[in-house]
Specification:
The chain is of the alpha/beta class and 339 residues long. 43% of the residues lie in helices and 16% in strands. The chain has 14 helices and twelve strands. A seven-stranded mixed sheet has the order 2-8-7-6-5-3-4, with helices on both faces. Helix 3 crosses helix 10. The protein binds pyridoxal-5'-phosphate.
Length: 339
């Protein structure tokens, strides 16, 4: 079975498992896990921020970031495609007490004008004030679309002008950096907080990081405990994260190359794609995502049905060039026959 449902399906590599087995650990709720501490410092340094926090999931990283920077009753501005708007079960409403103002944007990328148009800070008891903006890089529902450093900087200026905080949901931040040949820290320089996932293309079994200024990370640390994310000998997982950051970032370029080749081969057969594919994911336009997904499964390829007229395939470090060829052949049989 060739599993293209998501880059979350990646398995820990042999080197990673070896590092995990040898990790020095302690009780992280007491702040005594040296490997967690090392990962948090490493991540903060890597992204040019003061402090880092290791959390179990990207969802918790985003939620803690939102709750640490916006009070209940306030409003967050984000794209209509944003993961925290679509896929996090209304947690920011339920636990954060936050209202959202969503921007249509293009492929989930908001322009500074889009953001500015949603700013609401009138001194009138009718209104909830916008105090936080959240961008996503790369955009999951935008087929891996990337913000450039200049686009992030422009949104950063809008936030500064209106005294709003800026969060980056960088679940796939390193895909955005590798695809553009820029440093990840450059992509997030204007952001107050940044979350990223170790458990996706980077190949760790679990874990995400939240980085930002010391005061915000301190609030997020308390929120992590309140949300049930205080882990004990989490150094076993943190070791996997450190290994991923040190060894698996450059390989993301290979995932991007395979996604591109996959797309080009199928386009040559008349298969159409719903959106551009600048990083590791492709969204194929189909009439009936459920039946196509089932047919591909029969042909040995797993994909995700998405919305009404798309299926998603994601390339990741456990997909080889041979797998790529097999997947192309299976998709040709299923998709070209179905057309
Ligand atoms: C996967 C993802 C998350 C959430 O991460 P989990 O670890 O699955 O909770 C958040 N944002 C984006 C853009 C994602 O792709």
């Amino acid at each position: 079975m060739i599993d293209l449902r998501s880059d979350t399906v990646t398995l820990p590599s042999a080197g990673m498992r070896d590092t995990m087995a040898k990790a020095e650990v302690g009780d992280d709720v007491y702040g005594e896990d040296p490997t967690v501490n090392r990962l948090q410092d490493y991540a903060a340094e890597l992204l040019g921020k003061e402090a880092g926090l290791f959390v179990p999931t990207g969802t918790m990283a985003n939620l803690a970031a939102f709750m640490a920077q916006a009070n209940p009753g306030e409003t967050v501005i984000l794209s209509r495609q944003a993961h925290p708007f679509h896929y996090e079960g209304a947690n920011i409403a339920m636990f954060g007490g936050l209202l959202t103002r969503t921007v249509a944007g293009k492929l989930g990328i908001m322009s500074p004008e889009d953001v500015e148009a949603e700013v609401l800070q009138v001194d009138d008891p009718h209104f909830s004030h916008t105090t936080l903006v959240s961008i996503e890089n790369t955009v999951n529902r935008g087929s891996g679309a990337c913000y450039t450093p200049a686009q992030v900087a422009a949104i950063g200026h809008v936030c500064k002008r209106h005294g709003m905080r800026l969060h980056c949901d960088g679940a796939r931040l390193f895909n955005a950096a590798v695809a553009q040949g820029v440093e990840a820290r450059e992509l997030v320089a204007p952001c107050d907080t940044v979350s990223f996932c170790l458990s996706k293309g980077l190949g760790a079994p679990a874990g995400s990081l939240l980085v930002g200024d010391r005061a915000t990370i301190k609030r997020a640390h308390k929120l992590r405990k309140m949300l049930g994310g205080g882990m004990r000998q989490a150094g076993v997982l943190a070791a996997a994260g450190l290994y991923a950051l040190e060894n698996h970032v450059a390989g993301l370029a290979e995932d991007h190359r395979r996604a591109r080749v996959f797309r080009e081969r199928l386009e040559a057969n008349g298969v159409t794609f719903a959106m551009p594919s600048p990083t590791n994911m492709v969204y194929i336009a189909v009439d009936d995502p459920l039946s196509i997904t089932a047919a591909l499964y029969e042909a040995g390829v797993q994909v995700l049905p998405h919305d009404v007229h798309e299926i998603r395939a994601v390339f990741h470090r456990d997909i080889t060039d041979d797998d790529l060829e097999t997947a192309v052949a299976a998709c040709r049989r299923v998709l070209v026959n179905a057309a």
